[in-house]
Design brief:
Number of helices: 12
Distance between the termini: 25 Å
Number of domains: 3
Shape: globular
Helix content: 10-25%
CATH superfamily of the largest domain: DD-peptidase/beta-lactamase superfamily
CATH architecture of the largest domain: 3-Layer(aba) Sandwich
CATH topology of the largest domain: Beta-lactamase
Radius of gyration: 26 Å
Structural class: alpha+beta
């Protein structure tokens, strides 16, 4: 989430030129752009009153219909946010109708959208329309849908959907129609289809080739299937920790599929997942894919929960107070005292500080390791300009900057580096020997290589000033020990640490519909579950604990999140539902 800036035109310029206000241009329509290797489609709709809404498709990642919100348009400058992926776009509308600007999802990147100027043929071709067929992979039936259209020059276009894998709008290449012969490629998955149109125009019979070949026949449809709510696997009796691995072996079958979209755990992905689960005192750690039980992973924003625990401990020790202004923990002269209310340590921990998601002076020298050169000097320079005034009634606004600042402030008060403070207050007392920021040579050998959402190798991330927001590495076993302490702080021999853990669970503010927040921990009001997730450039994570049900789990993955979300999150939700005996979200991804 970003602090949006608007460009205000000087009234003097209008008066001096004698110009009159012009109507805003109509920007409703379809747009296409590319973000690195990703092809994006933006769909903007204008209501009769001029209000704008829209959706975003990341076609290479199989994500479509991602809601866009908070459209702001003054006739020249445009901005909108995409809350589902914590991203935002801002820029300007050109004379040619193109949208030129910047996409920010932690690291600002240029992103230009050009208008889709497709003009449909006056008379559709014989293959234009919607077609549906079924493939089989590893015993799994997969519906394949193609949408074919032709333009006024006679050129054919198509897009392929793998409906059961929630993958939509993969663009076809080399689309060819010659008489009744029809063929196309899908370069995204290195696939090819060729076949013939039946005489009655209702069937396309042919072969799909993706490494191997198999029959794939399509039937003409009146309407297209669209992305909907994720499918649910039927409920079963609550699963215990000892039985979960066998259940997941079965439930993960869709994630191992290689036909059409590569499943999240398909052999070609190099993906590895480590899972730790504890239920009613029984704990298990098991792995899938390339992971080993002792593999080290980046845990990303789950690190924030450790920073919250450090805060609670230091409050219990009388070293700080929740309502202390963060300004008092910065080097003297860093930022002026505001005239009114100012941001406190508690505001940072409950994500109600009013600070943006990221500082605006975050300009990585190396986008593959974006936080490595953002140190205290850069952080203090931003705060000096931004100030620490607290807005009236600031809403929940997830901020890496805010919790990173909290970690730096607590380290300043302790007179220690954040890594040393983490060891002193949390990992040492809880005997978390594998939870650290800097890896030993032996741990480095167990640090599983990370991958981006497209399964390409990704650089590890090194955080400096914002380490408290996402700099920790750990194993499934260590994280499970951490979650056991969250479930049963009363079992700890250290009463002050137990009290601090309980303090982090106290609910203090609203976060979103159905969600409240303690100290960093998010809480689902309907299930009684505390949770947090995380992601870096090559890793993703999800942790949760449910005191009422007496169970907890951690999912660590060596693959980052993509436009369709996080497989670690999906798997974490699935595990929670299996432990609770509820229908579980399908793991097709």
């Amino acid at each position: 989430m970003l602090k949006l800036r608007f460009l205000w035109l000087s009234m003097a310029a209008f008066l001096g030129s004698g110009a009159v206000a012009q109507p805003k241009p109509n920007i409703a329509g379809d747009y296409a752009g590319t973000l690195g290797p990703l092809h994006l489609k933006l769909h903007i709709v204008a209501a009769p009153d001029g209000a704008l809404t829209g959706t975003l498709d990341s076609t290479d990642q199989g994500a479509s219909g991602i809601p866009c919100q908070n459209f702001q348009f003054d006739g020249h400058s445009l901005s909108f946010s995409v809350p589902a992926v914590r991203g935002a776009w801002k820029g300007t509308v050109g004379d040619d109708g193109a949208l030129s600007g910047t996409w920010d999802q932690g690291t600002p990147l240029p992103l230009r959208f050009a208008r889709n100027t497709f003009t449909a043929a006056a008379k559709p071709s014989p293959v234009d329309g919607v077609w549906l067929g079924t493939l089989h992979s590893a015993g799994q039936p997969l519906r394949a849908q193609i949408k074919v259209k032709s333009d006024n020059t006679g050129r054919e276009y198509c897009a392929l959907d793998s409906v059961d894998q929630h993958a939509f709008d993969w663009e076809c290449a080399n689309v060819r129609l010659a008489g009744s012969d029809f063929a196309f490629d899908v370069t995204k998955v290195q696939g090819h289809w060729s076949g013939k149109l039946s005489e009655d125009g209702k069937t396309l019979a042919g072969t799909w080739t993706q490494g191997t070949s198999q029959p794939l026949n399509f039937e003409r449809q009146a309407t297209a299937l669209t992305a909907g709510a994720p499918a649910l696997d039927p409920a079963m009796a609550p699963v215990d920790a000892a039985g979960l691995e066998a259940v997941l072996e079965r439930d993960l079958a869709p994630a191992r599929v290689e036909t059409l979209k590569l499943g999240a755990l398909a052999p070609g992905t190099s993906a590895g997942i480590a899972i730790g689960v504890v239920a009613h005192g029984v704990r298990r750690v098991f792995v899938f894919g390339t992971a080993a039980p002792d593999s080290m992973f980046e845990i990303g924003s789950v690190s924030k929960t450790f920073t919250a625990l450090i805060l609670a401990e230091m409050v219990g020790q009388g070293k700080v107070k929740f309502d202390d202004p963060v300004r008092e923990f910065l080097p003297e002269g860093t930022v002026a005292k505001p005239a009114g209310a100012e941001i406190t340590l508690l505001d940072l921990a409950i994500q109600h500080s009013g600070l943006p998601r990221m500082p605006d002076n975050f300009h990585p020298a190396d986008p593959a390791n974006p936080y490595a050169d953002y140190g205290p000097t850069q952080l203090y320079a931003f705060l000096s300009k931004q100030g620490v005034a607290k807005p009236a009634n600031p809403p929940f606004l997830y901020s890496n900057l805010g919790v990173g600042l909290l970690g730096q402030a607590l380290a300043n008060r302790a007179g220690a580096s954040y890594p040393n403070l983490l060891a002193q207050e949390v990992t040492g007392p809880l005997a978390l020997k594998e939870t650290t920021i800097s890896l030993s040579p032996e741990q480095q050998r167990r640090f599983i290589p990370g991958h981006d959402a497209e399964h390409r190798p990704a650089h590890a991330w090194d955080l400096v000033a914002l380490a408290g927001a996402g700099g920790i590495r750990s194993t499934a076993g260590d994280m499970l020990t951490y979650l056991e302490a969250q479930l049963h702080p009363e079992k700890l021999s250290n009463p002050k640490l137990a009290a601090a853990l309980a303090e982090t669970h106290e609910l203090r503010a609203d976060a979103a519909p159905g969600l409240r927040i303690g100290l960093v921990w998010l809480y689902e009001t309907d299930t009684g579950t505390y949770w947090h997730n995380g992601a870096t450039g090559g890793y993703s994570s999800y942790v949760f604990f449910n005191p009422k049900g007496d169970y907890a789990a951690v999912v660590l993955s060596n693959t980052s999140i993509g436009g369709s979300g996080s497989f670690a999150d999906l798997l974490g939700h699935h595990i929670a539902q299996r432990l609770a005996g509820k229908p579980a979200v399908s793991l097709a991804f």
